[in-house]
Design brief:
- This protein is an alpha+beta fold.
- The chain folds into two domains: about 80 residues, 2,3-Dihydroxybiphenyl 1,2-Dioxygenase, domain 1, CATH 3.10.180; about 90 residues, 2,3-Dihydroxybiphenyl 1,2-Dioxygenase, domain 1.
- The chain has four helices and nine strands.
- The strands form two sheets. Strands 1, 2, 3, 4 and 5 form a five-stranded mixed beta sheet that branches. Strands 6-9-8-7 form a four-stranded mixed beta sheet, covered by helices on one side.
Length: about 200
């Protein structure tokens, strides 16, 4: 039953099923980037670069639709929204980050919590959880509680903890140096930044 549910989820999200499923988005290879909006692009770039160690790449912008509805039609934002600047970054062996700073007449200045629709977080794999948490705390980063180690279920072997960017964005550290328990039951593997 678990394998059937997982195969259905893989098909729904255009991921190759573990037992050779078919279909999905033609030509899809994987995640290229994760885009998100921050209140201050300079602060965000400095945090991801100087605290987390991400590589800073090129800026883009400014963008606006002028008097047209281009922004609404193409980006599902207010037609008068503008993007003064955005920046591309890369953090280790993973998807790129596309960080936006917007202005918009109807802009909400607080981010969603994980429990809100649209809630999200970005997780970073670390080899040494204890050292990574100590480093974040030494750099004044708010870590939410202490790391949790999964001892049962398919994620057994994983340790995780949430932390907050200076503007409140939810981020996570994960570590599973010896793998996760699901690997004993499934032929396929979730994407793994260690490889």
């Amino acid at each position: 039953m678990r394998r059937t549910i997982l195969a259905g989820l893989c098909a729904a999200f255009a991921v190759p099923a573990l037992a050779g499923g078919h279909g999905g988005l033609p030509g899809m290879k994987g995640i290229d980037h994760i885009g998100f909006t921050v209140p201050d692009l300079g602060e965000a770039v400095a945090f991801f670069r100087d605290v987390l160690g991400c590589g800073e790449f090129y800026p883009l912008g400014p963008f606006s639709g002028g008097d047209s509805t281009w922004m609404a039609d193409h980006l599902n934002v207010d037609a008068k929204a503008t993007i003064p600047e955005m920046r591309l970054m890369r953090c280790g062996n993973g998807a790129n980050l596309e960080i936006f700073q917007y202005t918009a007449p109807d802009q909400t200045m607080t981010g969603p919590r994980n429990s809100d629709i649209g809630g999200h977080h970005i997780a970073f794999y670390v080899d040494d959880m204890e050292a990574a948490v100590a480093y974040l705390r030494d750099n004044g980063v708010q870590v939410l509680g202490n790391p949790t180690t999964m001892t049962e279920g398919p994620s057994a072997g994983e340790t995780w903890v949430y932390f907050l960017a200076p503007w409140g964005m939810q981020l996570e550290l994960v570590s599973y140096p010896d793998g996760k328990a699901y690997e004993a039951e499934f032929d396929g593997r979730l994407w793994d930044p260690r490889s």
